[in-house]
Amino acid sequence: MKIHYFQRYHEKENVATANTMLLLSRLYSYSSDKFFRFLKSEYFADSFEPEIVFTLQEKSVDSIPDATITQEGFKIVVETKLTDWFYSDQLMRHLKSFGDEKNKVMITLASEPMAEGKLAAFEKQLKEYNATQVHPVIHINTTFETMANAIREVVDDRDYEMQEVLDDYLNYCYRDGLIPVSDSWKYLRMQLAGTTLDFNTANNVYYDNTERGFRAHDYLGLYKQKSVRAIGKVCARITAVETETGVKYTPEYGELTEERKQMITKSMADGDSHGYDLRTIEHRYFFVDKFYETDFKKITPGGSMGTRIFDLSQLLGTDDIPEVEKIADLLKKMSWS
Fold first, then answer.
1. Cα–Cα distance, 68 to 265 (Å, whole number)
2. CA nearest 68: which of 105, 26, 38, 111?
3. What is the pLDDT of residues 156-200, one digit of tens each?
């Protein structure tokens, strides 16, 4: 059974704050250098010393922010909401949480960006407040997904421990609805295929242990020998495991057809041939319309040791994602690191 790093099924707003602080503190504990790279890329331009204190619900003069991250010379105040439930009067009271730090940041964190009108109104009040301060407060309005993506940018493929922590955080966010799935249309998830690549491409199906979390994605890429060798568009996602009364199927997306049941049975047999237990361990089956051959090369030393998410809108420079066959041709001319 998978041990989760992040708690679930409690008071959602408090848990969202605690889990996000745990993610950041784990990153800091794992590598203070990468933690500061994350801070500098998102919030600051200067370098810092490594002594940081993570605090939940630190009492201020007039309010109790959800969390604070403190170090001599700078302080970050975090206010967390599940959706855009921010109110200027509460945020203005949170400003009293700051002292004479040189660098001050207030992060408003939610599943969606703050509404433009609300954001503009608070920014106006904040500008008036900053006019009275020696060191102004920087306001960053962000989302759980944006923060996770920024952390992924500073975590290497071979940072296995942090990759696992980050994947579990993303899994928690998806389960609790903190990351919307409406943008799955632009994401390509790369999976390691190796010995199963021929079976996957011939049968337009890929299987993976359900304990591995994943973010919503419309496209699936199969990796082998330093390159994404095939991509397809996901048309169904079904979990399956054998029980005493037969195979238990759970359709997550798409229709559970007899043809797909038969393919799952065939996949279990393929797993047997490679020494994988697809029968008693629940697996997730990704069905694609068709896998198209490509050659999207990794150009940095060493092979990829885990999954990777690519934003096709950024790779292709357009929100108008073409047909899968065209994507496969375009990726042949590209590379990644």
1. 51
2. 105
3. 777 878 888 888 888 788 878 888 766 789 999 999 998 999 999
- Print burial letters for 153-163: b (CB count within 10 Å at least 16), e (below 16): ebbebebeebb
Boundaries of every domain in the chain = 12-147, 183-336
Over the stretch 37-91, which tens digit does the pLDDT of each residue have?
888 777 766 555 545 667 777 667 677 778 877 766 788 899 999 888 899 999 9
Kindly report the pTM of this predicted structure: 0.63
Contact 287, 205 (CB under 8 A): yes
Q: How far apart are CA 221 and CA 189, in angstroms?
A: 6
* Tokens, residue 63: 């309010």
Question: Read out DSSP for 216-249?
Answer: --SEEEEE-SSEEEEEEEEEEEEEEEEETTEEEE
Query: What is the C-alpha separation between 170 and 51, in angstroms, rounded?
Result: 27
Q: Is 255 helix (H, G, I), strand (E, B) or coil?
A: coil
Residue 222: name the closest of 323, 121, 290 by CA: 290
